[in-house]
Amino acid sequence: MMISQIGKITAFVADQDRAKAFYVDVLGFAVRADNVWGDNRWLEVGPGEAGTAIILHAPFPGASAGNLAGVMVNSPDIDKVVARLRDAGAVVDGPTDEQWGRQATFSDPDGNSFVLVADGPR
Question: Which fold, 8-118?
Fold first, then answer.
């Protein structure tokens, strides 16, 4: 196979500081990079220090915030994450029990949407 992993995903956001607060304070992600070069800010977050990261970036010309959809994230305690999201004011659908396992859906403050999937056996 030519591709070994997905390294980074870009989520366009209208306000990088607001997005950083959501991903770090609500989802518990770590800031992996937060650098500014001229008018560009590279803000990279992810669960822990390794694995796929999400770049929280201002939209490029012709793009708009909130267009990321269907990214799946996992948790060993889906109920705790759902409660934390709701406490922070996020709209969450679920969790629901599906044939493949337990899941919920939510969006960040810009409308980038995620599917939260429970780790482990059903």
Answer: 2,3-Dihydroxybiphenyl 1,2-Dioxygenase; domain 1 (3.10.180)
Neighbours of 51 (CB within 10 A): 10
pLDDT in tens, 31-45: 999 999 999 999 999
Residues forming a β-bridge with 114: 71, 106
CA 47, 9, 103, 83 torsion-angle sign: positive
Burial of residue 22, with CB atoms counted within 10 A of its CB: 0-12 exposed, 13-18 middle, 19 or more buried = buried
User: Model confidence over 50-108: pLDDT tens digits?
Assistant: 899 999 999 999 999 999 999 999 999 999 999 999 999 999 999 999 998 999 999 99
**What gap in Å lies between CA 82 and CA 77, rounded to an integer?**
9
Alpha-carbon torsion angle 104, 90, 62, 9, nearest 10: -50
β-sheet with 71-75: strand ranges across: 71-75, 113-118, 101-107, 92-98
